[in-house]
Amino acid sequence: MIIKNLVNDLHEKGLFYQESVFSFNEVDDLIKESNTRFFVKAGIGKNKDIDNEIRSDEISWLTENESSMAVIRFLNFVKELSETLNQEFFLGINDFEAHFANYPVGSYYKTHVDNFRGQNNRVITVILYLNKEWKDGDGGEVCIHKNNSEILLSPSGGSVLCFVSKDTLHEVLPTNKIRLSLTGWMLNSKIFPS
After folding, report:
1. What domains can be seen in the chain, in order of their start residue?
2. Residue 182, beta-bridge partner list
């Protein structure tokens, strides 16, 4: 049911957000997995230039050889979603890339879209939030800029946010406590640069 609702919202609104898609136990397992990984400063653009004026998070990329059952559950969710999107909308999704994103206190990511300049191979952005007991005042919301308005979404644990990568202008507002997510992109690697 969640996949059907997600696909419908993506089609009708260009984005989907729902709390409690993943259980707290699943979130706990992913937090534990993130604690075993090595994080590096996130860069911007194809050259991955470090620019703390634009973004100040840290990332740890997933690989093809992931063995954590928690990560595999997330990847299976994405696989089912991508297969459904391909069946419904012929998007040509044929790959996926993702990383853990850690935002230390005070960090942010200024307004952007999720494709490198001149490319449209990222089709759908998928974010699973891993922040237990997130409350008002903790900051770190995603702010979606759409139709001359702003939509603020909490990064509460177990919530999933999906949107069209090339069209969705968004930012991560400064966080007042450590903020963690699994962030990925469904890819059509056959799309040529635009």
Report:
1. 2-187 (2.60.120.620)
2. 100, 128
